[in-house]
Amino acid sequence: MPLTLQRQDLLPARHFIGGEWCEASDARRLDVSDPATNAVFASVPDGTAADARAAVEAAHAAFDGWRKVPAKQRAQTIKRWNDLIVAHQDDLGRLISREQGKPLAEGKGEVLYAASYVEWFAEEATRITGDIIPAPVPGRRMFAFKEPVGVIAAITPWNFPAAMIARKIAPALAAGCTVVCKPAEDTPLTSLALVKLAEEAGVPPGVLNIVTASRERTPEVVDVWLDDPRVRKITFTGSTPVGKHLARRSADTLKKLSLELGGNAPFIVFDDADVDAAVEGLMVSKFRNGGQTCVCPNRIYVQAGVYDAFVAKLAARVGALVVGPASDPASQIGPMINARAVEKIERHVQDAVAGGARVLTGGTRLPALGANYFAPTVLVDANASMACSCEETFGPVAPVTRFDTEAEVILAANATPFGLAAYFYSNDVRRIWRLADALESGIVGINEGALAAEAAPFGGVKDSGYGREGSTHGLDEYMHFKYVCQGSLSA
């Protein structure tokens, strides 16, 4: 079925370069499929190196003018973009649900989440300040100013096609940078719609450019940006291997990098926790977007005293989840993004069972619904040797491991190269601060399953990357300091 929107022009389905909507240089197209059915319902340009170079040319040409636009004026433009995003929540939510698969309520929720970052950075644009530094000698004045880094390249993932592009582009524009962007090949339409609304909001030609490309051609596009010294920053959300590749390839031009990479989040429940609240927190954090989030718990540790009660309540809640397409208002879990995702989930479950884990609920594909559906699953008696404990499953599978002592679970939680998010539930105030200090993670949720907020810094440590998104720290990622010293001021 074709996708019908209230504003059909929010499906431009073309590159946006230098203020013009255009086709790929060789006119090749990339099909976009509905993960609920695998049916193609749209197409976009399949970008080339020539398209990527054109985008950089446009962004570079526009940079000097955009950086000189007064901060208040930049803020007003970004605020208009926010207002348009909110006004078109329904259309954007339908777009997200159709190309990504998440239930419509989640798709609409993501639109408001994306808008929250746009609004935040619109307001922060007018608060970019520097320092007046006390001079060590008479007759000298010393200052430090923040300046935009220049052209930035944003590479965004498929799981949050609105939120991720907003979280990267809004601070870049607020700082005075210009942008070239490559959205994920699975979900390009939402990104194009957001750029369409940015154009409508008055973002000048060349300031924001977007190039779509297939998985096959993405290296061709991105390599142009990596090699071009005019691109001064790469911001990327995705897998750790790709992030490391980008870091290596950026070394020759010494680009600034923000890398939000893989996760393997622990979720710890202590004997003194509110078990019902912990189950509810896990449902929120684990099963949002069908478990296809970088901060969702991947390893669940429950202390022996509450283990049986916790897994019984969790299995009951997970078993009651409604699985179905986004078009069904009753759906709580949609399809996975593609066949590769389902194959990985199935492999993890089978490996866990072979290693001694038991399936309490789920554990299988749901072929009656379609090829990309997998039943929400609870595994018990999981251990550290299983693939689901070592690799990011990125699906609706909750493997639960029993533990006895606090020291034991801290060692287990930190026994991973990743460090994006961690969660724990406890009512012992002393333990709360011990765990907050001990967990090797960029984000920690204490008796809370929903962590992200536009005012908070989002990012990881270790193999989960570096740099932060959101908050004032996220704005600083798009600027550098210039120190200015004026002498000979003595009479």
Automatic annotation (TrEMBL):
Catalytic residues, chain numbering: 260
Pfam short name (any one): Aldedh
SUPFAM superfamilies: ALDH-like (SSF53720)
CDD domains named in the record: ALDH_F5_SSADH_GabD
GO MF annotation, one: glutarate-semialdehyde dehydrogenase (NADP+) activity
Family matches, as InterPro entries: Ald_DH/histidinol_DH, Ald_DH_C, Ald_DH_CS_CYS, Ald_DH_CS_GLU, Ald_DH_N, Aldehyde_DH_dom, Aldehyde_DH_Superfamily, Succ_semiAld_DH
Protein name, UniProt field: Succinate-semialdehyde dehydrogenase/glutarate-semialdehyde dehydrogenase
Organism field: Rhodoferax ferrireducens
